[in-house]
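Recall from the previous lesson that a structure prediction takes nothing but the amino acid sequence as input. Here we apply that procedure to F-box domain-containing protein from Aspergillus ruber. The sequence below is the only information supplied.
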Amino acid sequence: MEVYHDHQVEEILIRFQNLRSKSARRAVYLNVLNELRVDERRELKNHIDKTSFHRDILGSLPLELAVQITSYLELADLFNLQSVCKRWKSLLINRLVRDSVLNWRYGPGTVDTSSNLAFLQFARDRVMLERGQPVSQSHFSWQLQTYQISMNPMDYHSGRYAWVEMDTFVFRFCTENRDVFDNVRITDQIVAALSRRGTCHVWHLHTNTEGIFHLPSANFNRFVANGTKVAFGFRENVLQWDLSTQTTHAIRVPTGLHLIILHPSQDRLATVHISNRDTGRFAGSIATDRAVFTLRQFYRDGNTGAFLDEEPEILPLPSDIGPGGNFYEDLTDRKSRCNHRLGSLHINWHNNRDLTEALILTADPCTFQIYMHRTHQGSIHNVGLSMTAIAPDLLYYIRKADGNPAIWISNPRAKRAHRPSPMLSRELLRKEVNWEDFDRRFMILGDGCSVLLVDASGLRVWSFDRDDQAMGAIPIS
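The prediction returns the following tokens.
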């Protein structure tokens, strides 16, 4: 459209620009519109239609501000949004942007972003875990001597799976006097088995080292392992034993012990406790609006050898958990047998007695960061058997969907906190198992390398690591 820059036009434009109030400007342009002829209105409409009202705010910002905004993106968004325009691609591959996203989502030092290859490999593997998309699957047939999975203590870590059978063997380990074992734990370095007589036998996976220690009491409610250490939780004490030093340490802790986290390499541990904000104690059940979760960290003093505690930290509950319900612990033996890397509480709601949910606590053993997962409605059948933490902040769990069991993924820091994994759920549908029988016949285990589905006929393994897969792995396209 041709514009005449004579003095009359310029005077009108200047006077219009000098109008400060919205009402004055609106009065002028509405009156001008009323003065337009039909052809002039048509010409004005065509001009408006060709005018773009979109503005690339992100691309126009200084890098420092853009970094603050992009830090809230999810990892997959860094790649998906690169196709918007060249400016966005240039921005999203910037190391500062990558560092901000990784620091916000996963903590500092997660991966060296100066190496483009290392970052791409981490991003690819992490997105596959978040979406439940393994690269291969394997199946190993067997016949457990006990029909119910819940009666066979088992554990998994870093590609190794261990279980207890009634002939006293733990994987390939047994004692000279053929002790009968009730429980087993495995890490990347040791296998620990607990006998019915309260003796804990520990074998190193890579050396001939082994050790034995005796529990002072059978009244423990937590049995955990990490690195070369094992720990047992009692009412007011945690007993830690280290194979590398063959020494035992007793650490006094408050009541309400809910979770023990062992550092894999350092003489450090953490505990999570639940208590009533009014009484300071926990008697098995507590109102959701009176519950307090406390994280306590302990470290070994280099001079005295004793474990000292740091300032306790109050853990905030998920924002969608309010009054009107009760937390309670499932104290069945199955939970202590099968899931020592999680803290789990059932939730009953007063206005719906038939609805049972769960609050699951997962942890990073290196940083002691705690993550809380509130499962979807109707998702929990047996807490101890139906879920596994494959990463500190990622929980795979079994949920009843459309009448059938399905594997879902919880990520409390994601925009979509819960998402299904159709790829992993297909195997459950093929088994054609009733939901009521699920906890007796199935169990899931796993970590960032693999996810395992165990039943009485064998072991199904889904691998996420392209470079380290199970034997007989079949690629998944």
